[in-house]
Amino acid sequence: METPNSHQFHIHPSLIKEEAVCVPLGELYRQMTSVLRLHKGDAVRFFDGVGNVYEGVIAHSNKDGILVPIQFRTTQPRGGEVTLAMAILKNDRMRWVLEKATELGVTTIIPLITERVIKRPETYPPRWKNIVKEAAEQNGRAWLPELRDIATYHNALTAAENPIVYSTHPSATETTPTPKPITLFIGPEGGFSSDEIAFAVSKKIPIVSLGSYQLRADTAALVALARI
Q: Bridge-partner residues for 75, per DSSP?
């Protein structure tokens, strides 16, 4: 049962002490007290990122921390395993993809280096994890998608489970297979190169079209997720 008008926060399981959530001084404490101005008597909702939800009302809030006795404890089903292997985009567009993928229930996100990717970082920025966390907090999901290390297209495609490559290439079909688990590969602006498509074809991986028009990469990710 969800407490009406409650804010939702992601917490580490270590903050659950017996039958209460104990929030120590730190970033979450500042968010709750200084940003949202929550205080004793306010309803709040916590989730641990692996499906467990804890709801209650703030009983104590002082300079030492916040105490919330757990009134309701529920488990949210995870749903089918969906991995989004997404070519790295420019900052705002990548942020949008991370947010929408989380909202739509993607279980794993793999940032991809492809031939046409402009920025090629060795590791993803720490803020990406915060983007995913904040999207789940606002959306009400109790599961956080796993954000994996940056991978090359060839390595990720070889290791993927039930991969699908989305492209406007002439060989692409209109039919989207929908097995679960499934891994969706979305290219950068300009799509995947001919060599990358040829590699997928050599592995007998389905090449699927998202329609007659060239979509922006971030739009393509959303359309692909909506189809499964």
A: 52
